[in-house]
């Protein structure tokens, strides 16, 4: 297919929209941002399935089939669906993957909608497609063409998913443990920290190894472990799927054990602390781990990026180190009904304390998107 510019919709974990947008901007050819709103980044870029499939921080990608439209009634929704260019979408997608049937499915995401709940919206869209006879509309499973209907209050946008699996799917992920994070969240944490080539990543609460796997895919050196033998087994399985030589990296460790922190003092600490209800930590952040984390936040310390449901504790530790800590950036994420906080602690270097461009970048990437922000035309 010729080098065509296409309008696309990138779906993101709530709170990671700006990090996703940065990745799109940095990696896609002929990229132009159209708008950024909660969970959705709209943009134009050259049609490049290979570049799309390499995106790490975006949950999924669709070809935009209609401009976002204000819709308040079922009839208006029917009119929108009746005019969607389904055949054109099929032609474009077929240049990325074979469409082996004429099945169409509908996936709805809805927030504060007057059109009813997701099932009600799905039923109206599916019924309209059936009347159009544009394919066999299937319920409860994904057809070869999947329409994603995204409803944010009164604004409806519709896209056709580019790939048959969502972008957050990772082929390395063969085993998971309770509390495992979405790979796109791990990828976003790493992007936020912008490690230099060769900078090692350390995750002492590695669980099934999602952060370590994403770091390994960036060819960064990794180290880490977990208290639970089941977690170690899962992490080894996943890392082995990336490179068999990595399967020996995670070891059974107790993160309360100070030598672990000393041994990895120069690495970037990127981790996801045990979530309160999900995974118990034998003794909390007030104990040895808090002390070790505090020492990590000393002058000249390597960066710290933590995903936690108890950011107050991390904050308290940072405040106790106020002479060493230059800046703390926080952003709330929305994942599977939880609202964990991403906390990045930046420490002063030996020379001074002026906020660096790195610090400004992190602050702007964690800035919350509340309402649609439009850029350029669109
Ligand atoms: C939220 S989970 C991490 C999940 C991981 N990011 C993933 O994607 O699978 C937290 C992990 O901390 C581990 N953990 C709890 N206490 C620990 C300790 N004292 N030392 C090391 N690991 C510990 C738990 O076994 C659990 O796997």
- Ligands and ions found: S-adenosylmethionine
The low-confidence runs, each spanning 5 or more residues with pLDDT under 50, are: none
CATH topology type of the largest domain: Rossmann fold
Helix content: 25-40%
- Biggest sheet, open or closed, and with what strands and sense? 9 strands, mixed
Structural class: alpha/beta
Question: What is the gist of this entry?
Answer:
The protein has 378 residues and is α/β, with parallel strands linked by helices. Helix content is 31%, strand content 25%.
Distinctive features:
VC0802-like; Rossmann fold; 25% strand; seven-stranded mixed sheet; 378 residues; binds S-adenosylmethionine; elongated
Write the layout of secondary structure elements.
Layout (H helix, E strand, L loop, with lengths): L4 E7 L5 H11 L4 E6 L2 E7 L2 H5 L6 E11 L3 H9 L3 H9 L8 E9 L6 H15 L3 E2 L7 E8 L2 E7 L21 H11 L7 E3 L6 H8 L4 E5 L2 H14 L8 E2 L5 H6 L4 E5 L15 H9 L7 E5 L2 H10 L4 E8 L8 E7 L9 H9 L7 E2 L4
Parallel strand pairs: 5-6, 5-7, 9-10, 9-12, 10-11, 12-13
Antiparallel strand pairs: 1-3, 1-4, 2-3, 2-16, 4-8, 7-8, 13-15, 14-15
Bound molecules: S-adenosylmethionine.
